[in-house]
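Hi support team,

I submitted a single chain yesterday and got back a structure, but I'm not sure I'm reading the token output correctly. Could someone confirm the output below corresponds to the sequence I sent? I've pasted both exactly as they appear in my results page.

Thanks,
R.
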Amino acid sequence: MVREPGMSARLKLALSYAGFLMVAGALLLVIVWVFLLRYAPREAISLRGGLDENGMRGPGFFIPGRLDLWEAFYPKAGAALGLLLVLGLAGGWFLAGRMLAPLNRIAAAARLATGGSLSHRIRMEGRNDEFRELADAFDAMLERLDAHVAEQQRFAANASHELRTPLAISQTMLDVARSDPARRDDELLDRLYLVNARAIELTEALLLMSRSDQRTFTRERVDLSLVAEEAAETLLPLAERRGAAITVSGDVAAADGSHALLLQMATNLVHNAIVHNLDDGGTVRVATAVHSGHVVFTVENTGPMLTPHLVSTLTEPFQRGTRRIRSDHPGVGLGLAIVKSIVGAHDGTLALAARPEGGLRVEVRLPLKVA
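Hi R., thanks for writing in. Yes, this is the structure output for that exact sequence:
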């Protein structure tokens, strides 16, 4: 936005300080002048001294009138007001500069952020006041923006890699088929169908994450206990094939949000618990509860021992610790990343913790829907 040039805030404050000082000084001089007028006669009075016993005349008395007082008072009053004006401007300029110095640092940081440098921090020293609170809030905003941009850059790079893989496979298969006269079209079509299905699944997962991040959904009352039962029933065939037992328990837990997105969250968590479990005889426990104004949705499973570092990376898209996910099991590596996005869109929190006996415990906290 183009704006017309104007006075700086420092100059405005300096003029304000000087103007206030001039008004205060003028009021003080007026009060002094009014006070003097109470004891000064309108006209000057001159009295001659009387004769003493030796016939000598004593000293006389002179009482100045108001005109005499004014002639003696106004030059000094004018000089005092001039001095106050100079002191007000100089002192106001200095004090305004000291007061606005933190704002200048914040403005400089904002200009750096506008230019793309999000790593700069103000870190203003001194005791807490309004300027320090503003600087700390600005630092926190820059930190979140920096982390968000870095996460988006990693996500874009990983998504590009994952989308490029099925396309490259399809291109290679088509090239081989074109150069092989004895190719089997049925086998080629089956393999292309699987590759295309994976690309479609990945694209739909990316669109779901985009929808939840933008919060473009209608909110309604959603009972997470019913959502948990629906997700468990949907994934029961998968659990039976993998030899995992699912148990669902808990009370009515009403949240405010999108039924479709919360069902997707529950399905992803239960699916993840089934897939990353023991080869046989594993268990998945799903529970809902209400605690301290929040609804709590918990999914626990048995499985291998997990390190804290590995657990901290599970919500990263396409990541499993320091290795990229492969197609050893169904999914495209966005299950917990989508859960994190949905929970954030519903103003909730997501907590992952490794179980001491092996497996993972996932806890989702969402605001309680008050009837």
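A quick pointer for reading it: Confidence is low (pLDDT under 50) at residues 321-330. Let us know if anything else looks off.

Best,
Support desk
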